[in-house]
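Example 5.3 — Four and a half LIM domains 5
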Amino acid sequence: MTTAQFDCQYCMASLLGKYVLKDDNPYCVTCYDRIFSNYCEECKEPIKSDSKDLCYKGHHWHEGCFNCAKCNQSLAEKPFAAKDECQLCSEYYSNECSSKCFHCKKTIMPGSRKMEFKGNYWHETCFVCKHCQQPIGTKPLISIESGNYCVPCFEMEFAHYCSFCKKVITSGGIMFCGQPWHKECFLCRGCRKELCEEEFMSRDDYPFCLDCYNHLYAKKCATCTKPITGFRGAKFICFQDRQWHSECFNCEKCSVSLVGEGFLTHNKEIFCHKCGSGVDTDM
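Solution (predicted structure tokens):
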């Protein structure tokens, strides 16, 4: 290429002096800056060819404009962190924005691996089993009031074993007759219905739903023939081989309550003294 032919690709001016190559094409400095310069995010001025262009995530800054958004310290050739689309120096980010380790209370530095659990953060090396002190990482864990435990340590130290399935109870559970049960294993002895949210009765150290207990074991009221369970402190009356709900223990003739009162019987009927005085009674 002769000197006469060495011209600016855009304005065709002679490039005997300073020029810039772009995609193997020569441009005078003025044309290059006007056509190709990026604009600084901070000052909004073009970043010309004689200035250093700092780029981060598709945005550009002059070297002198690339500063911490809070303390204005230069970030050129220094580590920094981004928060809410702002660049922050590592010192400010560590002091004001970084999470603090729940265990050691020290800052978790940007770029460090951190563990999150129940809204708190740990250094990876601080998130350890309370018993064996080994890092838990992403392995299964069991958390109780005293701390976090890996599953083997928890089972060794604390776990109860279900009386029904013999497997470890890791949470929840029910105590019945001094024995632990999984909620899903605590079933009616009769119909096998889950009882964890149900009212139930006990017989020979076995739980029964009310329907099964009433059907299998409850005495029947001599008046209404419905089961007498005594559930929730319900009162009932026994006389010889018969039982009554307290609200059913009434005179056969006038229906007055006989609870706490003297009464007379005739065959299988009961009477107050007034109504039974003319009847050939047993008492």
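Remark. Helices lie at 29-36, 90-97, 151-157, 210-216, 273-276.
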